[in-house]
Amino acid sequence: MANEKRKNLTPVQQEYHQFEQDRETKRPVLKNCVRAFFVGGLICAIGQAISYFYMYFFDFTEKTVGNPTVATMVFIAMLLTGFGVYDRLAQFAGAGSAVPVTGFGNAVISAAIEHRTEGFVLGVGGNMFKLAGSVILFGTFSAFVVALIKTIAVKWGGLG
Amino acid sequence: MKKWFVLISMFFLMSCAHEQKEQQQSLQQENITNVSHDGSAKRSDQQQAKRAVDMLKEREDVKDAVAVEANGRLLVAYQVKHLHRFRMKQIEKEVGKALNEAFGKKVIASHDLKIFWKTKALKEKIDTKNISEKEIEKEMTVIQKLSEEQT
Asked: Which InterPro entries does this chain map to (chain B) (predicted)?
């Protein structure tokens, strides 16, 4: 709590605040970061292996291999979520499993599983993109804004 | 905690071991290209390709290069060193300009790994089997089309 706000508290409230702070469980920030780093890195290494697979066995170049790799990674994450493996991994790795594109697959399928009892249309269909929808919306919108800024900078700013 | 420490250190050791292997592989690759250079020198129609490879290998940011020529077209594929990949666009521009200035013919230059593999395979084919210029040109067209693909 900010110092300004703490001054306005009554002595009893301040005492309770101190009491709460003493007993609060400390977050293992460093440990979480190390876990996220290794698991996130492992997911990225698997992605790299998949893209090499597509390049080696199919006619994909470095430029075009991104799309099938992302689709495969999301599909694997969806399967693992359905089998209940990804949830355990997410509990262990935290952001390391949520930030890569596999986290998107997990968000879609976990929402679908959660609302399955409400029916296929209103339950699964209506709630599937509850979390992932915002990711798609913000991704598309921020790409539009960045492209707009780049276009303005290239056309009138003389960049590029 | 101890179990995790052991797992993490094992992961580290494994990745270190692979890195060494990769370094060895890339050294071997260099030897292979060197060997094949001698081979291509025998064919009189691959002289400019050899010159292009030598020109690119002089650059500090290029790890490996391979080139094939046929019927007035020169196909050059090169790999950029890992940390230099941040300046990829600039390197691409510089290499393209240098090759176009040095060789009068139509130059197709690419830093793509797939194009590098394909060009290398074609070069090895030229070195080992005595394939005709028409066949080389046919394969070069396929590689060029692949390098121009956007999505």
From this structure: Spore_lipoprot_YhcN/YlaJ-like
Residue B40 vs residue A123, higher pLDDT? A123
Cα maximum dimension of chain A = 72
Shared domain check, A114 and A70 = yes
pLDDT at B127 over 90: no
Q: How many domains does chain A have?
A: 2
- Tell me the residues of A at the B interface, defined by beta carbons under 8 Å apart: 38, 55-56, 59-65, 67
Measured in whole angstroms, the distance separating CA A38 from the mean position of its chain's CA atoms is 16
Cβ contact (<8 Å) for A61 and B117?
no
Are A35 and A63 members of one domain?
yes
In a shared domain, residues A154 and A108: no
In a domain, A15, yes or no: no
In a domain, A109, yes or no: yes
Q: Which residues of A83-118 are buried (b: 16+ CB within 10 A; e: fewer)?
A: eeebeebbeebbbbbeebbbbbbbbbbbbbeebeee
Average the pLDDT over A47-75 and give the result. 96
Query: Is the per-residue pLDDT at A78 higher than 80?
Result: yes
The reply to whether residue B149 touches residue A61, judged by beta carbons under 8 angstroms, is yes
The answer to whether position A82 is within a domain reads yes
**Facing A60 at nearest CB: one of B11, B114, B150:** B114
> Does residue A83 share a domain with residue A96?
yes
User: Which chain A residues contact residue B114 at CB under 8 A?
Assistant: 55, 59-62, 65
ipTM: 0.73
**Whole-angstrom distance, CA of residue B95 vs CA of residue B102:** 10
Residues A99, A135: one domain? Answer: no
- CB contacts < 8 A (A, B): 27
* Shortest alpha-carbon distance between residue A84 and chain B (Å): 22
Residues from chain A that touch B112, judged by Cβ atoms under 8 A, are 61-63
- Both A112 and A36 in one domain: the answer is yes
3-state SS assignment for residue A142: helix
